[in-house]
Design brief:
four-stranded antiparallel β-sheet, mainly beta, globular, single chain
Length: 113
């Protein structure tokens, strides 16, 4: 059974940082591209960032480019999202997804003063 468990969310002030983690199991993590998506209150899913299986290729939505960094540790079956210079518009539920679209339960990020 595929399991993706996100953690690391919380309440942070504008300009602050958070590091999200996604623990994966039930599939061969090291061969799967992984993606972070988010959903703001009352809005649809928004693609945030993607990393290829080997970690050497990453891509970002324009809204987070230069502030967020996606990475992975294939020895720990874990995906990360380092989020810096957070803005109120980054508020939402953050999910990790694998190459076949499985998604975790999400972790809430709230950016507010």
């Amino acid at each position: 059974e595929v399991q993706l468990v996100e953690s690391g969310g919380g309440l942070v002030q504008p300009g602050g940082s958070l590091r999200l983690s996604c623990a994966a199991s039930g599939f061969i993590f090291s061969t799967s591209a992984m993606t972070w998506v988010r959903q703001a209150p009352g809005k649809g899913l928004e693609w945030v960032s993607r990393i290829r299986s080997g970690g050497g290729s990453t891509s970002y939505a324009d809204s987070v480019k230069g502030r967020f960094t996606i990475s992975r540790d294939n020895t720990k079956n874990t995906l990360y999202l380092q989020m810096n210079s957070l803005k109120p518009e980054d508020t939402g539920m953050y999910y990790c997804t694998n190459a076949i679209g499985a998604r975790g339960q999400g972790t809430q990020v709230t950016v507010s003063s």
